[in-house]
Amino acid sequence: MKKSVTIIILLLIVIVFGGSMYYLYQKNSEDPVVYQTETPSTQTIVKKAVATGSILPLEEVLIKPNISGVIEEIYVEGGDYVQSGDLLARIKVVPNLSALNDAKNAIDEAKINLDDQKRNYERQSTLFGKGVISKTDLERAQVSYDQAKQSYVAANKRYDIVKTGTTSGLSSSANTMIRATVSGMVLEVPVEVGNQVIESNTFNEGTTIAAIADVDKMIFEGKVDESEVGKIKENLPLEITVGAIENRVFDAVLDYIAPKGKEENGAIQFEIKGTLKKKDTVFIRAGLSANASIILARADSVLAVKEALVQFDAATKKPFVEVETSDQQFERKDVELGVSDGIFVEVKSGLTPTEKVKVWNALAEE
Hints:
This protein is α+β, with helices and mostly antiparallel strands. Helix content is 26%, strand content 39%.
């Protein structure tokens, strides 16, 4: 019995020893780990946030009529340049029957009053000729007669205005003639001849006859996510790229950030605006979609390494890299970092252009 136990123990010892030797042999036969290295490079690093939006005029004026009616004639089209006061369109008035009837009744009443004052004036003139009344009484009758004549003329003009929108002596300032209130380019004319239009008043904004803007003063209007709005501030430079204009970058300045965000598709978006520095050689059409790069920070021609090569101390959280001292031998060097664009990061100190920095991911030699 004792002999059997001894044999079993010896066999176990042999098996364990053999397994250990085999494990050590396998470890020694594995290829050695080789770490690649990269040297720092000179880079221009730009830290930026991106916003999407469109190009719009700084000021766009909508021309609306002061009288309802039907478009009778249009004198401009989109793309035309106009000056303040230029004629844009003419409206044919479609009179309101109730207002037309009231104006007609006003003429009849004014005519009755005029005839009455005329008879009174003639009677007073006869009496004055006979010395029955004083000159003062005659003058009062004259004034009443003149006022009646004026009221009759005014009633007729009121009738003409209700019926046609204008009257004799007022054609130059008639509401039926729609004129530009500002100088600029006509962006669009959303009505056609024969369209009915509604006047602009307290209860109705009215029908737009034309939109006019100064296309030399354009802005970028876009939106940024709430995760980016905390990084930006007014007066930061913008680089605008317009999809329809290739190989062109337009400079702008961020001059407005909305104080309140709006929810869109489950995310809070903040409106921003930036004034473009217009290039006279390029015509930018209003409404073109565009992207804006908001320049948060910039470092030109600085020593930089890839962010993937930088490590951080577990205790102090300070950045460092591992620099090769000899073949596959590395030592730690603390570095001071600057601007980062997410790929490259500026190295302010702690590294020279000739040093080789260890790449984290180890590759086995093949």
